[in-house]
Amino acid sequence: MGLLGSIFTWWNGATLGTSLFTRRFGNQVGKDALGNLYFVHAKNPARRWVIYNGSNDASRTPPEWQSWLRGQIDDVPDKALPPRRPFQKPAVPNLTGTGETYRPSGSLSRGGQRPAATGDYQAWTPE
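^ thats the sequence. predicted structure below, dont judge the formating
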């Protein structure tokens, strides 16, 4: 994305204004597996923000970093939280509208056929 894109768009990374503000007042404190960068204000540590690597979508922020952004934990996740347990799956962004969207076996968008009604259902009617 060129300079004009960064001036006028907010949905793909940081705008020019956010970039200038971050450069002047922000201290980078971390980076997640998706490449998102996390900042804290130099004079007001309670002010925190993220610059996304790609589209600005809050579902692309892992849960541990969401906790940090909202002030639920004081230190960065690597220091404040216990290590990930083996049974925990990694967080994934919202996949709605992409080719990765979950489509169950009866879904018409998957090309499946819904099972025929068996006739054992009786609708309730009030007395």
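Residues 49 and 78 are 17 Å apart (CA to CA).
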